[in-house]
Structures are given as structure tokens and as C-alpha cells.
Amino acid sequence: IYNTFPTMDGHWLPPEMAQHQPVWKAFIEEPATVQFTHRCLAILTFCTVLLLASKSAAYHCEPRLRRVFIAAGMMVIVQLCLGVSTLLSQVNIHLATLHQAGALTLVALLVWLLHEIPKPLKG
Questions:
Q1: Considering only CA atoms, which of 44, 95, 51, 57 is closest in space to residue 73?
Q2: Long-range contacts formed by 107-112: CB under 8 A, 24+ apart
Q3: CB neighbourhood size of 95 (10 A)
Q4: Mean pLDDT, residues 50-68
Q5: How far apart are CA 100 and CA 105, in angstroms?
Q6: Within 13 Å, how many C-alpha atoms sit on residue 4's CB side?
């Protein structure tokens, strides 16, 4: 709907959001607001994964775990770039497909990371 970034045609919030009644339903029913929500979740995910990857450097992880942290950090950067590129290209199908594949790759890396993190000892 809005092919500009970081604003939505000069607006930080889509104007359509306020026109939808009730406003809270706009987040799941109104297309421009759904796009806004996607952007917010993308930025939150980007910041969280990068913070996680950067904080992991303070711990002396085994090399295999360290590589997964680095891969997740790098993939979230690639994913954000693919998302913004897809948006600015007015949803070029090749970029959009790569963006979808990037999402699957990022989720797979995060699941792998959860699997690799050692469990705390009990008792």
C-alpha cells in the first residue's frame, strides 16, 4: 500500500488507522495498518535478534553456538534489507519471494539457536 520507508508517504502512522472503527480492529482488518504493524514487528525483531547476537559475545560459547548466533545476526540484517528493498521496488516478485525465504531461514536459525543453547543444570 505504502512503498516508502521509513515513513508511510510522509506519515509515521497510516491515516487510515484513525478512520477505522473501532480503532483496535484496524490492526487486523485495515490493510495500511496491518502493513504498519508488520513494519513495527520487523523493526522489533531486528533489534531483538541483533541485541541477542551482540550480547552473546560476552559469553564464552562453544564455537558451534557462537556461529549460530552470528548467522542469526547476519540473517536478520539481510531480512530487513530484503523487506525494505521489496517495499521500495513496489513489491518486485523476486525480492518478495526472497523476503519470504529469508523469514523461513531466520525462523529456522532461531529454532536451531534454541536447540543449541545448553539447558541449565537442575538441583
A1: 51
A2: 109/68, 109/71, 109/72, 109/75, 110/49, 110/72, 112/68
A3: 20
A4: 92
A5: 9
A6: 8
Distances (CA, A) of 32 to 25, 40, 57, 80: 12, 12, 38, 19
pTM of the model: 0.89
Which pLDDT does position 24 carry in this prediction? Answer: 86
Per-residue pLDDT at 33 exceeds 80: yes
Compute the average pLDDT of residues 51-62. 91
pLDDT at 120: 76
HEC string of the chain equals CCCCCCCECCECCCCHHHHCCCHHHHHHHCHHHHHHHHHHHHHHHHHHHHHHHHHHCCCCCCHHHHHHHHHHHHHHHHHHHHHHHHHHCCCCHHHHHHHHHHHHHHHHHHHHHHHHCCCCCCC
Distance CA 25, CA 29 (A): 6
**Dist CA 33 CA 12 (whole Å):** 11
- Please check whether residue 70 is in contact with residue 55, taking contact to mean a CB–CB distance below 8 angstroms: no
